């Protein structure tokens, strides 16, 4: 019997398949970024400015924005709220090298845990994946399904980047985490493992008042309410 709790079901409901696919991509990305020191997380390859540390910080932002601001309209909290995104649109990528490995792993691990709690709470409501969220466009409000699918796209793109970056750091390569893999850094909780009482709080990055739907464009540059991921 394999020990791979990140694998989605072979034949589940739409909800189970989408969330399962997202969890597998999250875990694969986390495996690619795991166990590195500051030099490893800041390593660049070819002419790209991307780093694994930058991807950890960027995807933490996207988790908080996608399943926070876009879902319920609440503006982002720190460290995102203080950033002038118009003046520094790549802030999370640019500043990742200034953060310790411990803080980068914790930032992403906590953001993922908040997203899991928010999505689980949302799916427990009437409407499931069809329910409308705060963000939208000219055609109306987006659905929770759209947020999940967009997050799958985001992780698909950046897990591919992580493949290349990690192999350049120390030669680690592969499509999936090895059977029985467990993280050696941070506190990432594998899918299906019970959450500890000390886990990241649900409201961790929400601050301020809820924004009216009219102020919640579905796409655009990074801000309290919109992000081009």
Q: Which series of helices and strands comes N to C?
A: HHHHHEEH
Integer-rounded radius of gyration: 17 Å
Total DSSP E strands:
2
The low-confidence parts are: 196-218, 220-229
| CATH topology name | Four Helix Bundle (Hemerythrin (Met), subunit A)
Described by the principal axes of the CA atoms, the overall outline is globular
Structural class call reads mainly alpha
Quaternary status of these chains? Answer: single chain
What is the mean pLDDT? 86
**In the CATH hierarchy, what is the superfamily?**
dinb family like domain
Neighbour order of strands in the largest sheet? 1-2
Q: Biggest β-sheet: count, sense, barrel?
A: 2 strands, antiparallel
Number of helices: 6
CATH architecture: Up-down Bundle
Q: Can you tell me the number of structural domains?
A: 1
Descriptive overview:
The chain is mainly α and 229 residues long. Helices cover 44% and strands 4% of the residues. The protein has a two-stranded antiparallel sheet with strand order 1-2. Helix 1 (14-33) runs parallel beside helix 6. The chain is globular and about 45 Å long.
Question: What labels would you give this structure?
Answer:
disordered C terminus; Four Helix Bundle (Hemerythrin (Met), subunit A); two-stranded antiparallel ribbon; mainly alpha; 229 residues
Which helices and strands appear, and what pairs or packs with what?
Layout: H1 14-33, H2 38-41, H3 52-72, H4 91-95, H5 101-123, E1 132-137, E2 140-143, H6 144-170
Antiparallel strand pairs: 1-2
Helix pairs in contact: 1-6, 3-5, 3-6
